[in-house]
Amino acid sequence: MFGSGTKLTFRDYVQGTWGSFDTPAGRVDYMMTKAKLGGDGDAPERQLTKSLAPVREIMDAGDLDFNQLLQRDLDDHRVAVNLIPYLLKPQSTGPAFFPPIVAVLLPFRNKKPTKFPEMGNSTVTNYDDATWQEQRAGNAFQIHRLLGADGEPHGANVGKLWWNRSEASLVVLDGQHRAMALLAIERTLSNTWQDTAGVKFRSFYEHQVRQLIETHETTEVDLEKIEVPVTVCWFPQQTGEASRPHEAARKLFVDVNKEARPPSESRIILLSDAELGNVLTRSVLSALRGHNDGRRLPLYAVEYDNPDVNSSRPARWSVITNVNLLKMAVNRCVFGHPKYLTNLAQPIVGRESAEERDEFMRTQLDLQTLLPDRIDDAGYVFDRESIGNLNFPIGQADAIGRRFMETWGAAILMLLSQVKPYADHATSLTKLKEDWHTADTFASLAHDALFGGVGVFWTLRSSYEHYVETRQSGEHRMPKSDVIRAWEALKAKEEDFDRYRALEYLESTRPENIRNCKSVYGVYNTHACQLGLFMTLGSLWELRKDMVTTTKISELPAFADALAVAWNAFFAIDHKKARDRKLAFSKTITDPINQIVNMDTPQAVYFRYFWMQALAIPDVWSHVSDWLPERSKFDVKLGQARHMYLDWCTKQQMKALVTSQPGLPERDLRSQAEETAATNLKKALDRWFFVSGGEFDRWRTDADMVDPRRADGIDPQGALDLASAMRESADRR
After folding, report:
1. Which of 37, 163, 455, 533 could form a disulfide with 168 if both were Cys (CB 3.0 to 4.6 A apart)?
2. With pLDDT > 70 as the criterion, what percentage of the chain qualifies?
3. What long-range pairs does 282-290 form, CB within 8 A, spacing at least 24?
4. Which of 488, 510, 496 is nearest to 434 (CA)?
5. Beta strands in 52-152 (DSSP E)
6. Of 711, 341, 329, whose CA–CA distance to 539 is shortest?
7. What is the DSSP letter of 587?
8. From CA 329, how far away is CA 465, in angstroms rounded?
9. Residue 370 burial by CB count (10 A; 0-12/13-18/19+): exposed, middle or buried?
10. pLDDT tens across 514-541, in order?
11. pLDDT of 489 above 80
12. Residue 268: burial class (beta carbons within 10 Å; 0-12, 13-18, 19+)
């Protein structure tokens, strides 16, 4: 039944489960089968691997019409460094798996699109002790379908497809990168690159494949286990002179891909075990699930189900943070790079050494006291000193996660749960939840969107957007369903929440205070502001280790608690003359310190300066002084951070002046920009952070010694002198 079909003249064929998909645009037949790497070279599954072809190997580059079928070029680098190792390297985190590749049989002759001969009528043929229904399109391709004893198609739906490669090619429609990974391995193992149209791409792959095989001692037996599902399609009605198979293929490509969406970063974090950072981030969310004692941020204040691929800040008005930010906190506090925590004049730019980040993580989690030197994990042996973000024993993931949650995880949650802006947001949200009446169906849906079902919010949003688009198009009037009413109820509840939060945070529901509250929370809920908070934790912890040699990571939660108490003392400072420190990070106040226009993630280093400046006030510093006994070292770091921020403000002023005064010489532009930036910062520090103008001027004069590119800022003695002057001036204030 599954013989090679020796009576037939076609060389290439596949066998598998037959299916058919009828559409208004025509019929698509398909065969579900598989492609293999190892085993008998003449087996159809092995031959299929060789037959799968990216479009660039079938057509000349000038034939743009058909090249548009695949929309984008192959990324050979991605295939070589990601997909091939994924197939060949042992996976400690579970089995490797590719979703099905979709390929379509299309007519080509001499790399030019042609047409298939007319499909002949069905006939019945017997061979290999079985009865088959046969159809043939000239010498291009032939299909067989197994028949039962009654002459009808067999219930097993077994079929075969043969084709003549001089007249037809199997073109990959979906999964061309996956197919290229298979082809690269196959061609390298069989030494057949030179016999293919892809020989010019040989250098991208051959060395990589051979190195992986030699390093991991991949054997023929190992390769036999690599089987990738393939769906082979053809168009039975697109044969003959009037046919248009290539247009049908373009249509099929669009149909296959138009609904496909790459997974969102949130979904990857929630589901992937490929990175230790994902595992640690999920442990933070797990700690919040079911935790409702009022001391920790409730889970419904965290956005973790956003389907958008890119979500740099929370999209829901009800949440204060999202899972992406939590991963950033893990990334910077646990993995570093350490230069971003120790040198506060270092902007976030450039690549980071994975080896150095992994080494830092092992120190931050003190893996030396947690794991033995060598770990046998389900047959995979790990050296503790080689454990990193992408290489870790999955069997020890829980233990590493517990260590993280006892230390850094608890500290991160402490700040998000106890620092006043975030604590007050959560309190207001809980108050809204408790006061919400859900008697109606739509009210219950709206409530569930914020506090219950995963994905409900996005479903309501998409439904409402579709509703609005349909109404605007004028095609037909759609009645308001409960789904639409639920979304409208959510919008109304947003206004209620704004009042709850203004009352909690600013102790007032006057319209101007509601506006002020929304404005400052537009800063607090950005990744830049929150990551700056966590980077402050990381930097001050590094500073404590420098001051106190007996520091242990078990002290981290208590350290974070002290920081939270200190910052809350800053926000509670008596606000005479309308100087409410709870608005100090806002951009709409008088003399704001926050001059940042686009609060993107790399701007976190400037927000770290804001958080540190708040700690420098004497009444605030008293809450952390026991943890950081050498104030002068803190002041050195504060000076680094201030210097970098002032430099950034100067550059922004330069850009503005170049636009407003294009004829001014560059030297004059710079001088004017420096004075404007310094004046603005001096006013902000005096108004909101108790730094007098005289103190700022002295700091600025002394800071001429500072080289912000150095990890220690200035020469050691100069640093101590400057820090001492800053502290004495602050104490006098």
Report:
1. 163
2. 86
3. 282/401, 283/401, 283/402, 283/404, 283/405, 283/409, 284/326, 284/330, 284/405, 284/409, 284/412, 284/413, 285/323, 285/326, 287/405, 287/409, 287/413, 288/413
4. 496
5. 101-109, 112-113, 123-127, 130-137, 141-146
6. 341
7. S
8. 33
9. middle
10. 999 999 999 999 999 999 999 999 999 9
11. yes
12. middle
Whether 571 and 662 have beta carbons less than 8 Å apart is answered as no
CA distance 478 to 717: 75
> How many other CB atoms are there within 10 angstroms of residue 236's CB atom?
15
Q: Estimate the crossing angle of helix 456-473 against helix 482-506, to 10 degrees.
A: 120
CA-CA distance, 48 to 41, in Å (whole number)?
10
Here the tokens at position 709 are 């590119």
The pTM of this model reads 0.75
d(CA 296, CA 417): 5
Q: Determine what percent of the chain falls in helix, strand and coil, rounding each to the nearest 5.
A: 55, 10, 35
Query: Distance from CA of residue 60 to its chain's centroid?
Result: 36
**Element spanning 232, H or E:** strand 227-234
By the 8 A CB rule, do 335 and 389 touch? yes
C-alpha–C-alpha distance, residues 146 and 140, integer Å: 21
Amino acid at 554: S
Angle, CA of 386, 389 and 393, to the nearest 5°: 60
Residue count of the chain, please give it: 733
Say how far apart CA 284 and CA 299 lie, in whole Å.
10
By the 8 A CB rule, do 387 and 364 touch?
A: no
Tell me the Ramachandran region of residue 713: left when phi exceeds 0, alpha when psi lies from -120 to 50, beta otherwise. left
State how far the Cα of 724 lies from the Cα of 634, in Å rounded to an integer.
10
| C-beta pairs of 434-439 under 8 Å, 24+ apart in sequence | 436/493
Helix (H) or strand (E) holding 17, with range, is strand 12-23
Is residue 135 within 8 A of residue 121, CB to CB? The reply is yes
Task: Give CA–CA dist 502/574, Å, rounded.
Answer: 18
pLDDT at residue 219 above 60? no
Show contacts of 700-704: CB within 8 Å, 24+ apart.
Answer: 700/646, 703/639, 703/642, 703/643
CB neighbour burial string for 151-169, b if at least 16 within 10 angstroms, e if fewer: eeebeeebbbbbbbeebbb
The Cα–Cα gap between 590 and 607 comes to 18
Q: pLDDT tens, 21-48?
A: 887 667 899 999 999 887 676 788 888 8
Under 8 Å between Cβ of 370 and 448:
no
Tokens at residue 166, please? 């001089």
* Residue 203 parent element (H or E): helix 202-216
Angle at CA of residue 29, ends 27 and 33, nearest 5°: 160
Least confident of 12-26, 460-474, 616-630, 717-731: 717-731
Helix (H, G, I), strand (E, B) or coil at 174: strand
Strands 374-377 and 26-36: unpaired
Q: What is the DSSP letter of 419?
A: S
Number of CB atoms found within 10 A of residue 464's CB = 18
Q: At 292, list the tokens.
A: 């409702």
